[in-house]
Structure of Ribosome-binding ATPase YchF:
Amino acid sequence: MALTIGIIGLPQSGKTTLFNTLTKAGAPVSGYATSTVQANLAVVQVPDTRVDSLSEIFQPRKKTYTTVEFVDVAGMGQATQAAKEKKEGLSAEFLGHIRNADALAIVLRTFANDNVPHVYNTIDPIRDLDSLNAELVMTDLSTIERRIERTKKAAKSGDKKYQQELDLLLRLQEALNELKLAREVEISAQDKVVTDELFLLTLKPRMYVLNTSEDMLGSANEILAKIEQGEVVDPEAVQKELKGIAQVALRAKEEGAQVVAVSAKLEAELSELSEEESNEYLEALGLPQLGADRVIQVGYRLLNLITFLTAGEDEVRAWTVTRGAKAPEAAGKIHTDIEKGFIRAEVTHFNDFMECGSFAAATKKGVQRLEGREYEIQDGDIAHFRFNKGK
Ligand SMILES: Nc1nc2c(ncn2[C@@H]2O[C@H](COP(=O)(O)OP(=O)(O)OP(=O)(O)O)[C@@H](O)[C@H]2O)c(=O)[nH]1
Ligand SMILES: [Mg+2]
């Protein structure tokens, strides 16, 4: 089961263009006439240079990356507008897609283009974010209010569990009423049992994707880097076109959310070129990597996932486990029999392996470890599992 990142944003912010660059899928874009109505879904490989480096050494018959799923939905204002006319809240189909997403990539338009309509007519990404948040908050509030009714009835039985649940719901309601996100409310492990059932939209981990014009991308990245490093940046003092970018980056910093700048249109064009040509182009623009790749990598991290690797002549492969998973659980990703019969894991960290160049050298140098059932798998571990086949 791939974990899913929902791409949301105002209409015509470039969601489908971004989706296409992530997935090379070719879903229709441009103009309200081709606005997304039905969701686009695709499973995407997570770029990982460790898989590439190991493949150069092992020359395997097969190399396999981890994957995440992206879903691209209709523009939010639009979904709401259509729904408001019918007075039914966010459409059930639209909501279904984003409720089930494990994290959100929120696309904010910062590119100017008179040919691409904007619901609020001007370019102002922080205003757009506030408007999207308001809509998500309203949806969560109605979820919470329905649950409060139910819990109040149940609490009459005197069962303490329901009283605690009610306390949590009221705290959430209060925060949402102040237009705060559910993410800002402190939620204990016990409360999480309840929130897991609610699929709150403002509780999901999120990243902001600033869809930027090609010529602003370099300076946008500079500002993001400065803010991330904690430098003081005054949005009023930067170049006019960068103000919104700075505002969103500062907000992300405050919230502990991730932010990435991309030029969806540029990347859509690059994806038509060969890898070599596309790399030359990126270099000429002074960009270290495709924004799409960053979006995938950051999205993957949002899901609280880590990658461990297996390497051999047959296959070099990246595997996904949740952060904190123990060795047998990781073994179970490969095969349930390996988990059942788990004896121990031979583990070499990728960085140590690269210094040695082979498993034999790693063993000699003493960087290959034998780990037992209680070992917590680390990102970048290369693992080989010993297991009892009879079990
Ligand atoms: N100049 C410029 N135009 C862009 C950029 N990204 C998207 N566009 C254009 O904006 C228009 C809308 O893009 P879409 O990707 O369809 O936007 P969307 O958010 O999926 O739109 P809806 O499905 O209607 O919500 C298209 O004409 C794109 O070519 C960009 O980075 N720069
Ligand atoms: Mg679209």
